[in-house]
Write a structure and sequence with these properties.
Elements lengths: L1 E4 L3 H4 L2 H8 L4 E4 L4 H6 L6 E5 L5 E6 L5 H14 L3
Parallel strand pairs: 1-2
Antiparallel strand pairs: 3-4
């Protein structure tokens, strides 16, 4: 699991305290120039990508609504089991 923030330099100062308060135990990287956002051509955040072991995007989802995490969990389980 990896998170990438697209906050600018000013917003980036708030990220460590948010990560700590949420108890996130995964790596959070910064893309202050939004290069990844431009490369993957998305506008809505959060943006979720699930990659296979070859680094290919096999699932993408934009935005967040309560319950979206269950769909992501299902997709992860399918990827791990090799089914679709």
């Amino acid at each position: 699991m990896l998170a990438i923030t697209i906050d600018d330099a000013r917003g980036l100062t708030k990220v460590p305290s948010m990560v700590e308060s949420k108890g996130w135990e995964f790596t959070v990287l910064a893309d202050t120039k939004q290069e990844l956002q431009q490369a993957l051509n998305f506008q809505t955040i959060p943006q979720t990508f699930l990659l296979n072991d070859k680094g290919e995007i096999v699932y993408a989802h934009n935005g967040y609504n309560p319950g979206d995490e269950f769909e992501l969990e299902k997709k992860i389980a399918e990827l791990k089991s090799g089914t679709k």
